[in-house]
Amino acid sequence: MYSNPFFAVINHQPACRPPVWMMRQAGRVLPRYRQLTKMLPFRTIMSYANLAAEVTLMPIDDMGMDAAILFSDILVIPEALGVKVEWTNEGPAFPHPLMDVEHPAAELSFSPSHLNHVADTLDEIMGQKRADTPVIGFCGGPLTCLCYMLGGRDKTMQFTDVVRYLYTHREESLQLLDAITSASEAYVHLQATHGIDTFQIFESFAGVISAELYQDMIMPFVRRITAAVRQHGLPVIFFPKGFGAGLQMLTPEDCDYVSIDWQTPLLVARHLVNPAIGLQGNMDPRILFAPQAVIEQHLQQYLAFFREHPNYIFNLGHGVHKDTPLENVQFVTEWFRQTQK
Hints:
This protein is α/β, with parallel strands linked by helices. It contains 13 helices and nine strands.
C-alpha cells in the first residue's frame, strides 16, 4: 500500500482520493519563486542545481502537492541540438528559425553535455526530498519542439507556416523529428538514471494539425520516447493538448496515462480513451480565479469521477496561470486532503 496517492494511482493501485499536482506548479504563483526571479533570470535559475531543486520542491511544502515536477523547460532539447534560444521576459525567442535553412537537419548537432545541469538538479532533488515524494520528469513532444525550432515564437500559437512546411517538406520534417526524438530518448535515459518516478511528454501543440496527420507523422516518434521510458520500468503520461477526438486513436503502446485539456469534457474523454489508459487533468486553470465556493463545486465533480474511475490524477487542462491566487491553489490541495479523513 502506497502512502502517497500519486504513487498508488500511477501504478494502478487503490487510493482513497485522487492525487493532485498541477502543470507549471514549480514557480509561477509561488512568492518564494517570484523573489528568486527578482534576483536571477529564469535560465540562470534552471542552470544552478541547488536553485532548480529548491524550486522543484517548493510546491510540496508551499502548496501541498502530491508530486513534484522537475523545474526545467521543454526547450532544453532544441538548445542541446544547437538551436539558439534567447530567454526573454516575454518568453523564449528563436533568432534563427530553421525554416529559413535549405537543409535544416544538417544544422543540428546533439551535445548531451548541454543537459548535464538537469542531471545535477535531479541529484540535488533526490538528496533533499522526502522518500514518499514522487518526481516527474518530462520533455517536449516532437511536434511542439519542431514548431519552435522551425517557426520560432509564433504569437498566435497556430504555427501555420510550420504546418504548411509539414505538407510541403515531409522528408525534411521527418529528419528533424528523428533528430528531436533521438535527443529526447537520450534525455529520458538521463532523467531515469537520476531518479525520476514518472515521465510526461508535453505535446502542447498537438491541436495545430489534424489528428490524422498527427497519428501518421508524429505518433511513431512519441512511441519511441514512450518505449525509452518503459525501458526503465517507469509509467508515461502523454499530454496532447487540443487533440480532441484524436484521443480515441491512442493505444496502451502510446502511454499509461493521458492528460486531458479543458476543451474535452472528462466523461467524453473517458468514453473515447482506451480503458487500459488512465486519465489526468481537465480542469480549466482559470477556474482557480473563481470564488472558493465555485471551485469546490468543480472539485466535487472530479471527486465523483475518481470514485467511478479510480485511474485518475487530478490536474489542470494546461499550466497554472502566473497570477493565480496562491490561496486558491492551496484550497484545492487541502480540499482533496480533507476528503480522505
